[in-house]
Every structure is written in C-alpha cells, then in structure tokens.
Amino acid sequence: MTVLTSHRLPFPVLAAVHQATAPRSLVPRSVRVGSRRTSMRLEPQFWTGLDLLARQEGCQIAELLDVIDRSRDAETSLSSAVRVVVVSYFQWLASVETLATPVQAPQQNLSQAFF
C-alpha cells in the first residue's frame, strides 16, 4: 500500500463525496436476512463494499447480513450496522497492510486538507 504523501484529497475522492451526497444516491435492494425478506437502502459504494467483503470472506451477502443483523443492538438500524461493518472491515484491512509502514499524521487540519 502506498504511503500518503500529499494532504490534499485526490479528485476521485471528492467526486465520490459528491456522488454519495447527490439526491437519490441511496439504492434500494430486496435482501434476505435470516428467514425473512426485507428491503434496504444503501449508497452504491456500500453495496459494492458489502459484495467485496462477502467475497473476501467466502460467504454470501445474505449470510453476512444475517450475522450483522444478529450482532447489532436493537436501537441500530440494519443499514447503519452494515455501513459500520463495511467501513470497519476495510479500515482493518488497510491497517493490516500498513503495519510495517505506518502513515504519518497530517500536519494540516481537515479544512486545510480540502483546499
């Protein structure tokens, strides 16, 4: 994995932020969770992340959703729990890959990094 040398976000990241916050950016899908069918709305990036996570772990999305559903607390929606799991999984993967080369903390604050 490459060490981040610039504190400016690359154009693709900004484009993804714009796409994720655009109207109608949530994609509804009918899914199976345990023995029931339900529908869930997620951003396209989370559907892709969920698919990649399931493939990486050698399971079906339905199996993964069942585990997430059984593990979440009653006050957390399934969609929110899926988002947290997907982000956490890829953060963990990134940390495993960069253990030998830690990324240095940025010298700028977040608002400076955007402009």
TrEMBL record:
Highest taxon in the source lineage: Bacteria
GO MF, any single term: DNA binding
Domain Ribbon-helix-helix intervals: 28-90
Keyword field: DNA-binding
Name of the protein in its database record: Putative DNA-binding ribbon-helix-helix protein
Species for this entry: Nitrospirillum amazonense
